[in-house]
Amino acid sequence: MPPKGQDPSAAGAVPEIGLVRIPGRVPYRRGLELQRALARARIDGSLGEDLLLLLEHEPVVTLGRGTGDGHLVVGPEVLAARGIDLVEIERGGDITYHGPGQVVGYPILDLRGYRRDLHWYLRTVEEALIRALTPLGVSGFRVPEHTGVWVGDESALGSAANDGRAGDAGPGAHPAAGTGSAVVSRAILEGRLRKIASIGVHVSRWITWHGFALNVTREPMEAFRLIVPCGIEGVRMTGLEEEGAAHDPEALVAAVATGFGEAFGARVTRRTASLVELEELSGVTVSLTELEERAHGGSAAAPRGRPSDPPRPADRRRAVRDGGRSEVRGGVR
User: What span, in angstroms and rounded, lies between the C-alpha atoms of 47 and 316?
Assistant: First the structure.
């Protein structure tokens, strides 16, 4: 255990991330409340490990704090007629769409165990997704001044660097940020640079929530025409299927797990939990280990609808690791 007040990463400990793939389609507002509850539990110390939730949402347009005027191209009534929810949220960034045909990821991480730097965190999420795309047959990269992951003609960025002004990036910015904006904008409008993954995060007391959306099938593409995705005029959104890449669900989850493990220098372990069970966890009822035992016919957990006894205060802040798996006593304020 590192000395009090010292980052675990500084003491050489390997961070651990529990990856939970939530089955089915999750209504956005329900998923939002879940991640907020888990983040609160991580903040107050009653959730003892980092998590990465992977899921698919019911159709929704979300408005981040940076959403510009006119970036919702149609009226709310048009969205409602198409069965698309509209939600204003606390994350950074502009407008985006989530729905079937995407993998949405919500990292609930304590950055004190990694690096207390929001710009570093954004770049590292990008790096995790870039690494995840490689085994799927896609070469992803960053585009200056546009958070997210892109595919297409990466040589257009070389032209931007040659045509731009060096030295404008500032600390924590993208590589080549501030260079050749006109060249990059032209390449985006021409479709030579296409966006495959969007990122928008929120951090409080160094705990993260919100996250990323990776486009998988062609299904989301029609909905993107109803907005100015990420506030980028003329951007062409794309996905794994559009790019002719493999998109087997299990292979995709495995690739994301590997990408996050490599980029964050963490040990990523698969967990088994449903949406309802995660909601129980955030409500201080059962542990992830108990949920896994329940899923496999074990008897450690209380029956559904009867919360198990809350842990003692000392237990609420303790993660018990056994064989690379973490037992977490969870609670929210």
Answer: 7
